[in-house]
TrEMBL record:
<keyword id="KW-0812">Transmembrane</keyword>
<dbReference type="Pfam" id="PF11146">
    <property type="entry name" value="DUF2905"/>
</dbReference>
<dbReference type="InterPro" id="IPR021320">
    <property type="entry name" value="DUF2905"/>
</dbReference>
<keyword id="KW-0472">Membrane</keyword>
<protein>
    <recommendedName>
        <fullName>DUF2905 domain-containing protein</fullName>
    </recommendedName>
</protein>
<feature type="transmembrane region" description="Helical">
    <location>
        <begin position="49"/>
        <end position="70"/>
    </location>
</feature>
<keyword id="KW-1133">Transmembrane helix</keyword>
Length: 72
């Protein structure tokens, strides 16, 4: 009985992970995620540093809203 619930949980998280990966691939092209004003990009010679600060904040707020709606 325990293996059934573990298998369902692993399958659910696998599908969730694949869907998240697909959204990340498509989201960068369609919604401009990763190129928002406020994202930090520093390039000097051979060194480049990129931190999507505003993108992380927006995704955090959206995921918080979605997960709160699912939880209720």
């Amino acid at each position: 009985m325990m293996w059934d619930s573990l298998g369902k949980m692993l399958l659910f998280f696998g599908i969730l992970l694949a869907a998240t990966g697909g959204l990340m691939l498509v989201g960068g092209r369609l919604f401009g995620l990763g190129r928002l004003p406020g994202d930090i990009f520093i390039q000097k010679g051979n060194f480049s540093f990129y931190f999507p600060l505003v993108t992380c904040i927006i995704l955090s707020v959206l995921l918080t809203i979605v997960l709160n709606l699912i939880r209720r």
